[in-house]
Amino acid sequence: MKYIGETHKKVIYHAFDFLIKNSKGMNRMKVGVIGLGNMGYPIAENILQAGHELVVYNRTASKADPLVAEGATQAMNPSEVASSTNVIFTVLAGVQATEQVVFGEDGILNSLPKEGIHIAISTISVDCAKKTK
């Protein structure tokens, strides 16, 4: 497992603990990660190494190449990630990026399955977090 900092490690641990407890017997989850920067890439890498199916999206598509080489699927837009997974981590650089990925034309809001889970691990305002609920 790649080390990504103690605080980030705790957030991810609690998110996966929740997912595992609520996965209704599923051993292998299909997880999406949108945003492959300093925090998103290691999260995606750890999900893939743990044996889960992984679908990724990043504005700079080439950042996904090593993950795709290891078995991840690269989506063309956030909506594609949402429609092909049940759990999505968004790890984005602020309010504007988060709102675009969630509510934008190719956003996840209309494509995430009814039982889908969106975990926003971004530095966003309280108002933005409330909107993404």
Descriptive report:
By secondary structure, this protein is α/β, with parallel strands linked by helices. Helix content is 39%, strand content 15%. The protein contains 6 helices and 5 strands, in the order αβαβαβαβαβα. It has helices spanning 6-21, 40-49, 65-69, 78-83, 95-103, 126-131, and strands at 30-34, 53-57, 73-74, 87-90, 117-120. The protein has a 5-stranded parallel β-sheet with strand order 3-2-1-4-5. The longest helix is centred in the first third of the chain and has 16 residues, at 6-21. The termini are far apart.
Layout of SSEs?
Blueprint: H1 6-21, E1 30-34, H2 40-49, E2 53-57, H3 65-69, E3 73-74, H4 78-83, E4 87-90, H5 95-103, E5 117-120, H6 126-131
Parallel strand pairs: 1-2, 1-4, 2-3, 4-5
Structural class: alpha/beta
- What is the beta-strand fraction? 15-25%
Low-pLDDT sequence parts: none
- Rounded to an integer in angstroms, the radius of gyration calculated over CA atoms is 14 Å
Order of helices and strands: HEHEHEHEHEH
Within the largest sheet, what's the order of strands? Answer: 3-2-1-4-5
What's the β-strand tally?
5
pLDDT averaged over residues: 83
Classify the helix fraction into a percent range.
25-40%
The DSSP helix count reads: 6
The main pleated sheet reads as:
5 strands, parallel
Describe the global form. globular
> In angstroms, what separates the terminal alpha carbons?
30 Å
